[in-house]
Amino acid sequence: MRNLCKQCSLLALLLIVGINGELLAELRLSAIFGDQMVLQQKQPVTIWGWAKAGEKIRVEFAGQEVETTAGQDTRWQLQIAALDSSFAAQTLVVIGDRDTVKIKDVLVGEVWLCGGQSNMEMTMGGTVNRDLEIA
User: Fold this and answer.
1) d(CA 36, CA 27)
2) Regarding beta strands 56-61 and 86-95, do their DSSP bridges make them parallel or antiparallel, or are they unpaired?
3) What is the rounded end-to-end Cα distance, in angstroms, of the chain?
4) Could you tell me the residue ranges of all domains in the chain?
5) Is the Cβ–Cβ distance between 115 and 75 less than 8 Å?
6) Contact (Cβ atoms closer than 8 angstroms) between residue 131 and residue 119
7) Angle at 91 between CA 109 and CA 29, to 5 degrees
């Protein structure tokens, strides 16, 4: 009985390690990238993620195609050239050997980080020269 328990434990461990290895091999991007994001205009944009070690990765966006290879640590990173602003929603496509990831409705423009308390709740309708500020 004790021997059977050891064998079951070993089998369970091997399954867990095997499953985790497959999950790590999956093409994925950092959680910071997602649908309806805005990329900073007029600056090179770094895209990064994970894939199977040695896997070739290609990123297509706004007429650009950039390639790299995932390292032995499964990480990959590349840069797309600076882009002009655009109100046209585009799709960023990341292509690996087996998987493809599409990020939809991506815009290029100014990225602002705002912080505060009650002043962050104020709508633009309550500001002086709101029409000029919104434009």
Assistant:
1) 20
2) antiparallel
3) 76
4) 27-115
5) no
6) no
7) 90
Handedness of CA 81, 84, 85, 91 (dihedral sign): negative
Domain 27-115 has CATH 2.60.40.10: yes
The count of other CB atoms within 10 Å of the CB of residue 25 is: 19
Residues 6+ apart with CB under 8 A from 127: 133
Among residues 3, 7, 33, the alpha carbon closest in space to that of 106 is found at 33
pLDDT tens by residue, the chain, 135 residues: 667 666 666 666 666 655 555 555 699 999 999 999 999 999 999 999 999 999 999 999 999 999 999 999 999 999 999 999 999 999 999 999 999 999 999 999 999 887 777 767 777 777 788 787 766
Alpha-carbon distance values, 100 to 2, 34, 56, 104, 127 (Å): 46, 14, 12, 13, 45
β-strand partners of 50:
28, 75
